[in-house]
Amino acid sequence: MKSGQGSRTADGAAAFRASHYLYAQDRVFEDPFAMAMTSKGWRAVLSNRVANGLVFGWLLRGMAPVAAQVLARSRFAEDVLATSVKSGIQQYVIVGAGLDSYALRQRGASAALRIFELDHPATQSSKRRRLSSLGVALPRNLEFVAVDFERQELFAALQASSYRADRPAVFSWLGTTHYLTPQATLGTLRSIAQHAAPASEVVVDYSLPKDLIARNQRTALAWLSMLAARLGEPIIGPLIPDELHAQVESLGFEIVEDISADEQALRYFANRADGLAPPAGCQLLHLRLRRPATAGSG
Ligand SMILES: C[S@@+](CC[C@H](N)C(=O)[O-])C[C@H]1O[C@@H](n2cnc3c(N)ncnc32)[C@H](O)[C@@H]1O
Question: In 3D, which of 15, 143, 127, 142 has the Cα closest to residue 71?
Fold first, then answer.
């Protein structure tokens, strides 16, 4: 993160969701608020079909799989949330929320659901300014919690909100582990294992190390690495699935699913005319907390 400004990768992710919402034939994920939340430059591109085609269809064409990754992770998280809400979970913690618009789209998912958006103060205040300039009425079940994970722990920050540590929650943590060291990612998962109530769920995406991706399938991730580094948020946190699984199990999590790019393609992108599919090397992991706070000391 560059100091003093909102996350540019969050802005880019919202631009991908917006372009997909506005111009794709079959939508994998519907985000009608995405365009309005992006920065001025993206809005200029997105509001014009020709400009959108030039930028997303030509200039950034190598990034199409990354756009698919952004769509797949949000869809996956909200599918998990929908199932969890049906089974009685009433707290949704969006870690590193960026320009996530679930709170505006929730359409009464559950009258009792509480939503906590955690993000870096710079990203969060820029989002709040944007929402306020749009005149969007914020839902009463949404709470913003500003936190810099380089200085403060997730649960220390949540204490400033009405989050109930004795009740299960769904934690979505999307598009962020890539930019953290593996130690920092595990530290946050450990903190969830130690402080969240049993039966809490975590949805998190992560990247595989380059060596675990076939040589001829590395292009999209190479593009993403280059772009992320230019935006000041370099990718430093690939994780090895077998090691990660052993580590999170020792913390007390059950692995519900860890789906590869190929499995995501089958689930969400089958039979598309535009060939959109996520890049090799991006995984979607769904965990459920099995044991209470005493689990795994790390
Ligand atoms: C790529 S964006 C993902 C945003 C959103 N989850 C999505 O899927 O569109 C990464 C997010 O991590 C947040 N972030 C990065 N470093 C952070 C830090 N030190 N503390 C808190 N949040 C941070 C950024 O503000 C940004 O919202």
Answer: 15
Is 53 part of any domain? no
- Give the distance (Å) from ligand 1 centre to CA of residue 152: 14
Of 136, 94, 102, the C-alpha closest to 119 is: 94
Residue 143 CB–ligand 1 contact under 6 Å: no
Mutate to test the pocket of ligand 1, among 176, 188, 230 (most ligand atoms within 8 A of CB): 176
Domain limits at 93? 63-289
Quick one: tokens of 16? 């991908």
147 lines ligand 1 (CB under 6 A): yes
Note the pLDDT tens digit of each residue in 31-86.
999 999 999 999 999 999 999 999 999 998 888 998 999 999 999 999 999 999 99
- Count structural domains, the chain: 1
- Decide whether any atom of ligand 1 lies within 6 Å of the 173 Cβ: no
Beta bridge partners of 206: 283
pTM of the model: 0.92
CA 88 to chain centre: 22
In a domain, 10, yes or no: no
Which of 126, 164, 132 is closest to 146 using CA atoms? Answer: 126
- How many angstroms is it from 12 CA to the middle of ligand 1? 11
* CATH code (residue 273): 3.40.50.150
Rounded distance between C-alpha atoms, residue 256 and residue 245, angstroms: 11
CB 284 within 8 A of CB 76: yes
158-215 tens-digit pLDDT: 999 999 999 999 999 999 898 888 988 999 999 999 999 999 999 999 999 888 888 8
CA-CA-CA-CA torsion sign (212, 218, 220, 221) = positive
